[in-house]
Amino acid sequence: MELRLTPTTMPATVRPTPAPRLSSNPVGAGADGGFSGALKSALSSVSAAQNESSRLQREVQMENPKVSLEETMVAIQKAQIGFQATLHVRNRMVQAYTDIMNMQV
C-alpha cells in the first residue's frame, strides 16, 4: 500500500509554500528566514505530531468510540518517522561541527 501526501492532505504546518519569499535579510537573521527558521518549523511540526499521537493514544486507552485504532497507529508512525528524521539531522549537524572544528588552520 502506497501513501502519498498531497498539499491538500498534508497538515497545514508542513504544507510546502507555493513560492519562496525573497528577503533582503541575511540568512538566519529573521525568525522565519533561512535554515534556522526551517529547522524551528520542522521541530515544531514534529513536536505537534508527537503531541497529537499521545493524545490519540490516551483517547484509545480511555475507549473513546470517536477515535479509531487505525488513526492512532498512523499518527504514532508519523511521529516516529519525524523523530527519526530529526535525530538524523541532529547527528549530521554534530558531525559537520566536529569536522569543522578538527580542520587544520
Question: Would you write up a description of this structure?
Answer:
There is one protein chain. This protein has 105 residues and is mostly helical. The protein has a domain at 69-105. The protein has 2 helices and no strands. The protein has helices at residues 34-61, 69-101. It is elongated. The chain starts with 33 loop residues before the first helix and ends with a helix.
Identify the notable features of this structure and list them briefly:
about 100 residues, mainly alpha, about 0% strand
Helix/strand order, N-terminal first: HH
Number of beta strands:
0
Based on the structure, what is the oligomeric state of the protein chains? single chain
Shape: elongated
Counting helices, strands and paired strands, the structural category is: mainly alpha
Largest pleated sheet: none
Strand % is under 5%
Q: Assign a percent range to the helix content.
A: 55-70%
Taking pLDDT < 50 over at least 5 consecutive residues as the criterion, the unreliable ranges are 25-30
User: If you average the pLDDT, what whole number results?
Assistant: 80
Rg computed from alpha carbons, rounded to a whole number of angstroms: 18 Å
Distance between the termini: 52 Å
Q: Helix count, per DSSP?
A: 2
What layout of secondary structure does this protein have?
Layout: H1 34-61, H2 69-101
Brief sketch in words of this structure:
With 105 residues, the protein is mostly helical. The chain has helices at residues 34-61, 69-101.
